[in-house]
Specification:
Blueprint: E1 2-3, E2 9-12, E3 20-22, E4 33-42, E5 48-54, E6 58-63, E7 66-71, E8 79-85, E9 92-99, E10 102-107, E11 115-117, E12 131-133, H1 144-147, E13 158-166, H2 172-178, E14 181-182, E15 188-190, E16 194-195
Antiparallel strand pairs: 1-14, 2-13, 2-16, 3-12, 4-9, 4-13, 5-6, 5-12, 6-7, 7-8, 9-10, 10-11, 13-15
């Protein structure tokens, strides 16, 4: 691994059509255990701003300043606030881990969970929708360029970098040890290294 440089390299995802999308694949259909990590620097925290999501499966975002998530159990889903405030204009690392019915959120290298819940869906819906970074995909099964920006929503105002999606629930200690490093063993990684 290498330490992430202290330069401000990220993807500006301030509205349509700046979101990043990845078409549906088996590696994105995560059910009982996974970890979603990202560095975020919002420029506004009012309304709904999605960090990353797979529509009708899982989503992580900021809703009116509060870090929130949604998990689809095959029947329905709704946003759940964590009580963690994400500040405007500052970089924050988020590690969201789901293991069975337990969810834990670690913030910027802390090994201690800032939020924990043991009453979430044990398994998630297998969704045919794309995985999106910086927006919610809605009912579109193709990417934003093919489907049109009007079918996407909840665009993230600000910057997102180093999105990692693991096929297992990582512990707080694992996230803390590697939150500021680039790894070769991630399940899926989007560095979003555009100079900003």
């Amino acid at each position: 691994f290498t330490t992430v440089p202290a330069t401000d390299r990220s993807r500006q995802v301030a509205g349509a059509p700046a979101a990043v999308g990845v078409l549906d694949a088996n590696a994105l259909d995560l059910s009982s255990g996974f970890t979603l990590e990202a560095w975020v620097k919002p420029s506004a925290t009012s309304g709904e701003a999605v960090i990353a999501a797979k529509e009708n499966a899982y989503a992580l975002g900021i809703r009116n300043g509060d870090l929130s998530y949604a998990l689809h159990n095959g029947t329905s889903w709704s946003w759940i606030p964590t009580g963690i405030t994400i500040a405007n204009g500052a970089w924050t690392h988020i590690a969201f881990a789901k293991s069975g019915a337990t969810v834990a959120v670690n913030i910027t290298g802390s090994a201690t969970a800032a939020y924990k819940s043991a009453s979430q869906p044990a398994t998630l819906n297998n969704s045919a929708f794309p995985f999106t970074i910086g927006a919610r995909g809605g009912s579109c099964t193709t990417l934003i360029a093919d489907c049109g920006a009007g079918n996407y929503g909840a665009f993230f105002p600000g910057q997102i970098s180093d999105v990692r999606l693991w096929g297992s629930a990582r512990t707080g200690a694992q996230s803390a040890a590697f939150y500021d490093k680039r790894l070769a063993s991630d399940l899926l990684t989007w560095f979003l290294d555009e100079a900003s």
